[in-house]
Amino acid sequence: MNETKIIDARNTFCPGPLMELITYIRQADVGDSLELLSTDDGTANDVPEWIEKVGHEMISSEKVEGVWHITVRKTK
Amino acid sequence: MSNGIFIICTSGTREKLQMAAMIAAVGAASGSAVSVFFSMNALQYFIKGGSTDAPVEGEFGSLMANNEGVPRFKDLFLQAADLGDAALLPCSMAMDLMEVSESDLDAEFGAPTGLTRFLSDAEGGQLYTF
Questions:
Q1: How far apart, in whole angstroms, are the C-alpha atoms of residue B34 and residue B80?
Q2: For A2-53, how does the pLDDT look when each residue is reduced to its tens digit (9 = 90+)?
Q3: Residue A38, CB half-sphere, CA atoms under 13 Å: how many?
Q4: What is the dihedral of CA B39, A22, B69, A45, to 10 degrees?
């Protein structure tokens, strides 16, 4: 498995961070992990919702010093 | 088509186009079949080389226009087509009145479509108007 890909979507607003994640997850290989950085609080709710809907895997989500670090794994 | 998301855009204002584009992009990227019908004042922004500087309706539109972190509505519509296979459909009546042809529109746009066909396709789906 490759190392976690960081996607820096700080200072962008809904649905920018989610669309960034979707763009990169489509380019990733199955099994790859991606960590989305976002300062948009709504993204912390939207990403898990999207991940569940499309069937990928949520690994973690935490807010550190005002920045959400949301890590997901591509499963298919 | 049924059970999809169908969006009719007629307004040329920033707020309405932004909300329509958000629904199209997120819906398409989430696996829903999305079709967007552009008519009236909404179609002008998708003519090649045209302006995308839509006027605002109110204060929130100004907030969005002045913040570079807000995705542009046109980019979101095109992402909906590229990432989620959303159909972007120009209204044939609007094209006739504006005297534009299919080749004048952005490449992501589909064939000119009549309202009757669009509404027929939308039966059973979610229909949003802006």
A1: 8
A2: 689 999 999 999 999 999 999 999 999 999 999 999 999 999 999 999 999 9
A3: 25
A4: 100
DSSP state of B6: E
**Nearest CB to B30 within list A14, A16, A50:** A50
Helix (H, G, I), strand (E, B), or coil: what is residue B119? helix
- On whether the CB atoms of residues B33 and B1 are closer than 8 A, the answer is yes
CATH code for residues B5-129: 3.40.1260.10
Give the one of A12, A13, A15 whose C-beta lies nearest to B26's C-beta.
Answer: A15
Cβ-contact B88, B43 below 8 angstroms: no
Is B101 an 8 Å CB contact of chain A?
no
The token pair at B112 is 């000119």
Structural domains in chain A? 5-73 (3.30.110.40)
pTM: 0.91
The DSSP bridge partners found for residue B36 are B7, B88
Token pair, residue A42, equals: 């709504």
Say how far apart CA B2 and CA A38 lie, in whole Å: 35
Please tell me if residue B71 touches chain A, with a CB cutoff of 8 Å. yes
